Amino acid sequence: MSDDGPMHAQSQEAGHELSDSGISGRSTTDGPQDAPEQKHHHRRVSSFRNRRSTLSGTQQELWERRWPEIGAEARDAAGRPLTRDIAQWFGRRAPVVLEIGCGTGVSTLAMAVEEPHLDVVAVEVYRRGLAQLLGAIDRNDVTNIRLIRGDGVDVLEHIFGTASLTGVRIFFPDPWPKARHHKRRLLQPETVALIADRLVPGGVLHAATDHAEYAEHIAEVGDAEPRLRRVADTAAGALPISVRRPETKYEGKGLQAGRDIAELVWVRTHGMTE
Hints:
CATH topology: Rossmann fold
GO molecular function, one term: tRNA (guanine(46)-N7)-methyltransferase activity
Number of helices: 8
CATH architecture: 3-Layer(aba) Sandwich
Organism: Mycolicibacterium cosmeticum
Protein name: tRNA (guanine-N(7)-)-methyltransferase
Structural class: alpha/beta
GO cellular component, one term: tRNA methyltransferase complex
Shape: globular
Pathway: tRNA modification; N(7)-methylguanine-tRNA biosynthesis
Largest sheet: 8 strands, mixed
Strand content: 15-25%
Radius of gyration: 17 Å
């Protein structure tokens, strides 16, 4: 969950502990979140933390009404990964942006509204955060967002193919600051390599974090991927997607506390080793 604050555990505004990233990637500070219902049979270490929560009556009604239309699970009840025709789901063919760990979707919604020519697939583990984003989509009549509940790497592996994404956004993923937990971090070399494969030439990987050591790790991993080239802020205007994020409530608190926000942007090169 990523768009609502210092991404440390999966989405703060959603009630996570501060993390946006999710495969999820964040944790929640304002309350426990619901644990993923899917059973994962792969051996990869997940980057999200289990949380339990319930939806309010209004959220549950909205969920039952809108989720079948614009929401989907990454895996079925037996734990099998699901596939989906993205163009059919949106009812059009347009450039697609994947946001991993959308949290409560503050950034997701704002950026989608500013870029109606893009289709945005937002992935989150925690249902409460998705319910809040679902409500915002419904109130604002936004048509270019779809939601997936589950593991972001599952989505990259099973729903999107090579050169199918114009952008991947990962805002404030859980930094898992303790050394023994670093293996849980979402942005590892293998995941960045998978993202590079899924991006079209010229496509964008945009990551943000307020954790200094994790920023160094992300920069090192991204720069080491031969299919990605780092982009300076001055070049951002030429990118196919916006890299301007709205400041969220929790991000603002982090800035007031003196935490710097690292914005890391790469583009997919045209060749394998350019």
